[in-house]
Fold each of these.
Amino acid sequence: NAGVTQTPKFQVLKTGQSMTLQCAQDMNHEYMSWYRQDPGMGLRLIHYSVGAGITDQGEVPNGYNVSRSTTEDFPLRLLSAAPSQTSVYFCASSYSDRVSSGYTFGSGTRLTVV
Amino acid sequence: ELKVEQNPLFLSMQEGKNYTIYCNYSTTSDRLYWYRQDPGKSLESLFVLLSNGAVKQEGRLMASLDTKARLSTLHITAAVHDLSATYFCAAVQGGSEKLVFGKGTKLTVNP
């Protein structure tokens, strides 16, 4: 099993450019979510999904869009990149079963906006 | 809105010593997670705590949950250098699937 796969691993964008960060999981997890990690801030939730076709906002959703057309994929779109979006982005997934082993995280995408 | 606070944020300890990391959360939560992160790496799941009084142990790490006090602890016994990492706790906001993280505790274990 591949687990949670994020692509790309590194990306440099110019201010105003758009791009999509990809996230795919092969564990048939219902829940998927995106976080950004900034120094000294921990991880902050951007958007999350409890199943295909259902998404909701997290703590810091502005400037990001998501969709969940399949159980496996949960892409994160940056509409118009800004330097404040420079961060490390993590995708995570989990079963809805409350006795599961928790969320499985991808390896991250390091994004720099110049 | 759920807030999660960890302390200390930085912890330097000697090998062989014991210490505890504290995780307080502000509102009702029925799941508490502990994760480990090595520099430049992803997060590794350590413990999932689901009920009041839950205690889980893995090697030199033991986690507990007191839902009445809204407190979880991660106790380190006889620390070794390999435990050096950043440890995060995270709680699920009641009635939702929003996972809220603390800011992390950077642990350094010195010989």
Amino acid sequence: NFMLTQAHSVSESPGKTVTISCTRNSGSIATNYVQWYQQRPGSSPTTVIYEDSKRPSGVPDRFSGSIDRSSNSASLTISGLKTEDEADYYCQSYDNTNHWVFGGGTKVAVL
Amino acid sequence: EVQLVESGGGLVQPGRSLRLSCAASGFNFDGYAMHWVRQAQGKGPEWVSSISWDSGSVGYADSVKGRFIISRDNAKNSLYLEMNSLRPEDMAMYYCAKGLGRYQLPGGVDYWGQGTLVTVSA
């Protein structure tokens, strides 16, 4: 099976833009959709991006997702950072037998 | 508004069984696959099991295959997870989650419940 690798942490100031990457180590990132989940401390995960770039209802358009075939990675970009965006963010994909793979998570700090 | 409410968690001894339930509302339950995802304290999420809209297709993580059984009752808008031969490593928060389509694929979710805690200890 493949692995998804994320940076352990990133920090940025309020109002700025942060981009989190998720790199697939084997097979094409474009083969299966990537989802992004936000988990604030003490809360259950919520979905901020599904199917590479779609936002569930209620997720602000400050959150955007994309894939880059050249680097075989997916990215989550959060613009206009707010303190409420401080959370762990996990990328997730799956193989063709529906075995899911999660990235290790990126902790976003808004300083 | 999509709502997923899990129940049935608790303290159980190793080797015993537990049945989790998830009550769904706010969407066309019988139009979507459903999933169970768990998360141990301080760890990332781990997919556990999936079931298609009509229960025609199910899938399990290798770590639970042969011990857990996923099922659903579309008439009751409910999802279940029967957990047998529980092990200490099964201890986690268990989340019910709504799938992206009718079938297990694409594998992912767009809505999560609040979770129910399963503690496995003697």
